[in-house]
Amino acid sequence: DLSPTARPLSASGQETQTTVAAVARVRVQDPGLAALEGGHEVELVTTRMVGDGQAQWWLESHLQAQGRVLERQVWAEVQAQKAVAARAGRPGGEDEEVVDLAAKVIHARALEGFSAWCQYQGMSYKRFGRQMVEQNSTRAARTLFAETLVLRVMESLGEHVINAPERVAFVLYQVLTKTHQGGAGADGPLRFSIDLEQLQDGLDWMQANSNPYVSAPVPGRRFKQLGLNFDDINECGLQRRKRIAKTYKEPRSVLVVVDLILSYRVPLAVKGLCFAIAMYIYLGSGQGDPQTTTGNGTLIAPQWARIDLVQYVALIDGALWTLVELTLLLYTSWQRAASACRPGPHPLNLVWIVEHVLALAVSAAGAGYVYLQRDFVTKALGCTGRDDGDCRDPRDLSVILPGLAYLVGRVVVLFVLHRRRQPMLLRGTPSSKDRRAVGRGRRANLGRLVGATAVWIMILAGCVVFEAFLLIPVSSGLDWGSQCGFYPFTLGAEVSVKDVGPCTQTWLWSSCITCVGGSVMVWVLIGLSALLDIYFVFYVFAGIGGAAMGQKRQLNNLKNVTRPVDLSYGGRDAELFARTFGPGWRGIWARTVRGLVDESLVSPDAA
């Protein structure tokens, strides 16, 4: 068996690990292009194979196969460059120059992921990636061809590790830094050394145990380990680990719900604040019980229930965020313990810990201070619908200052802690300097950012209006107090309402539980609707905005294949093309159609 995973067996049939490393060196086969002939060598070091002969055969097979594929790609790029030059009406240059350009293009494409990995790692890595890939125009084509071939051979030798591109990029970084550390000349022969154990590290673990919820013995580890997956291997590349480790503990059972809430804590908080604003408006709308929705002052001069609401919202928000921040710290410490203080996309580093400990302290201190400064008063029944004269709220607006101060601070903390500092998914997003160079800097995007922010503010405002005037009024008369006589959270308020309802005598009987449970279910439905209404409001705005943009650009009925197209001078469609593509649209359109015809493999007769 010539498979690289085939290992010698002992007399008992147990697999044994060879201690002597097999070494194979294969010279990169000249591709027949003088510009790419460099005499470079690729070295494979492994203890997985019986001897140097097996390693030599294995490396040579992979190198020859990938070399032939890469040679065809270079030839295709050479022909593409010549075609581009011919269409532009300029000379294509000497063959050696075209080959040199093609090798640089192929190198930049193949190592694009490696360059993105370098950008993510830090300044020294960014500098190395820029010199190796982004600024490859000054490097020798023969070296670029060899480096591209080494990457392809690594991907081939690594087998399933190709599913973890960040890990491949890290191993390639080690190969390239070792190759170029001696300051080897760009034109001199180079030796690229690949460690097969490091490249395939983790595959034996996955083969032995890939169930992330069960611990089992794995090769090369003293203790039982949870199952490994490609996300762990990939993240080890981001964290620059020389040895594969389990970096993430998958949640199970109730922890799945905890993970879901923690992951969506920011949109949940934003929707919660929108719901609180809607409730604030509803308490003065008169659409519900007159005792609670009238006579509560104005929006800027609140009284009675509105003052109580501000204090309740601050208290509930502070308590919930204290619980969320504490749970986040404990849960992330458990889930990401193996990744602590390592580079990578995980959150468990010193800055993140300090930020969220401070957020925990601010939330707990804010909730405690608001609770100590609370002042809840319930309006008397004789003042229903009134907030003047003897029915004026005895409290002044200074009562809500602690709650307002906390809520303003909460919005600031929410923005500071959860702003986007890195690309969320694509690690290869160009740097801010690169974006400015192509007209995509912050100033160029400022107008678009302001416009998008304004649209989202309008969408959230639409959610507030919907909830205040359509959703919350559904609950009119279904509160615990007026319906059931149930007042568990008075917080020291003077309850001066009529004792009615099944809960006035005792809470522990069926009528009280049924009444309170029905009210709870109604509010659960209202809460779920408040969370989901943003999708419907968003689609309404998207439909209105899309219709306006289409009308402005005169795109109505464009998908109708039976509509005649008038491209004559002065025609409606010709004017539309001119506004969209500019006055030279005819030349652009003709060149596009001609290019499609030239590249078509179907003859006009067959078409």
Describe the structure.
The protein is mainly alpha-helical and 607 residues long. α1 (52-87) packs across α5 (141-157), α3 crosses α6 and α17 crosses α19 (510-552). The strands form 2 sheets. A 3-stranded mixed β-sheet has the order 1-2-3. Strands 4-5 form a two-stranded antiparallel ribbon. It has 21 helices and 5 strands. Helix content is 56%, strand content 3%. Mean pLDDT is 84; it is low at 1-18, 423-430 and 490-498. β4 (215-216) and β5 (225-226) form a beta hairpin. It has helices spanning 52-87, 95-110, 112-121, 123-134, 141-157, 165-180, 196-199, 203-208, 230-238, 254-263, 265-282, 290-293, 305-335, 350-372, 401-418, 432-437, 442-471, 480-484, 510-552, 572-581, 585-599; strands at residues 22-27, 41-46, 191-195, 215-216, 225-226.
Q: Specify the overall morphology.
A: extended
Radius of gyration, in Å, reads 34 Å
Strand content: under 5%
Cα-to-Cα separation, first versus last residue:
52 Å
**DSSP strand count:** 5
Structural class by secondary-structure content: mainly alpha
